[in-house]
Amino acid sequence: MLDTPRSDDSSGNGAQPKNAAPTLEADKADGGVILHFGGDWLARTIGGVEDTVAETQKSDLGKSITFDLAGVGRLDTSGALLVEKLSRGLTEGGAKVTIEGTGDSESMLFDAVRKALDTKRPEKKVAQSSVVVDLVAKLGENVIAAGREFMMGLNIVGASLYGAGRRITGQTRWRPAAIVSQMDRMGVRAVPIIALMSFLIGAVIAQQGAFQLRNFGAEIFVVDLVGILQLREIGVLLTAIMIAGRSGSAITAEIGSMRMREEVDALQVIGLNPIGVLVFPRLVALTIVLPLLAFIADLAGLLGAIVVTWVYSGVTPEAFITRMRSAIDIGTVFAGLIKAPFMAIVIGVVASMEGLKVGGSAESLGQHVTASVVKSIFLVILLDAVFAIFYAAIGY
Asked: How many whole angstroms separate alpha carbon 3 and alpha carbon 106?
């Protein structure tokens, strides 16, 4: 910012003079109006005179107007810009404006301001777009974002494995209480809702299967249907989806709330790894309890099927169990249960990752909790499809 002092404002010892409030007064003269400018027209002072300048520009001052700047103490770029804009505004209204009382330095300052105002600004180019370009661009952005999240997930898994290695080798103390507490919250307290859901799902599958197979006189084969479907697919899949909505959202909310209160940063300040303290116990607890919950879901689903087939089709529990022994084996049970630890890791990693991305607002917390549940359910279903393809490829 250029600051041009008037010669009569300088003091002998070079001290900076006090700022004088800018003034603007109008006087009538022969054939026109004279605007007397006084005080210091500087960036830090012109705020008090901007309204006066705006009112002057809107006023009808005649066809001949003279700017008298002899009373101006100090002038900088902002002050010169305000005076020049006033001059141009009056000129556009049909007046002839003359500026007097300026020295060489002030004239050079006004010339620089006029040159800057007369410089043509480059026109903003509007980006040419089309539906195809926008679609490809959006696809690329999503791919890059997915890649970043994948790397962040690998970082969480790697840090958890590193922490597990340090605990196994005795470099870090185990905290079994944290893991047991999470197992209680994620596993034990989830048993009633998991069992009830699986009981109802098994009952519905048995009823619908018996209703359709009755047309062919093969109601007994509903046992095969329920046994294979419940043990290989439905039991573990619905359990994982329920845990993703129940425990996954809780993990994201807990870690996200700690991020909002800067507790995660506090852990780093005192030398603790947030992943080891917050993520590792939850990840271990999920990996342990999800197979157990899936097993309970299988039992509840089969119990629901037994009750429905007994009441609806007259198949006794003894006949149901005898038929099920010939329809399934131990491999069928483990074909479903083996998916559970992988699904647990996916749910835990996604929930923790979304929790660590929470910002400082409640809106951010809600968005990431929603994203955690949606992504976890999607990835769980995708993982189940991958296992189905794998089993088909090996002929099992």
From this structure: 10
